[in-house]
Amino acid sequence: MKTKDIYLAGGCFWGTEHFFKQIAGVLETEVGFANGHTPNPTYQEVYTDTTGYAETVHVTYNPEVCSLEFLLRMFFKAIDPVSLNKQGHDEGTRYRTGVYYTDPADLPVIEKVFASEQQNWQQPLAVEKLPLENFYTAEEYHQDYLDKNPDGYCHLPLSLFEFARSARES
Question: How far is it, in rounded angstroms, from Cα 128 to Cα 106?
Answer without folding.
Answer: 15
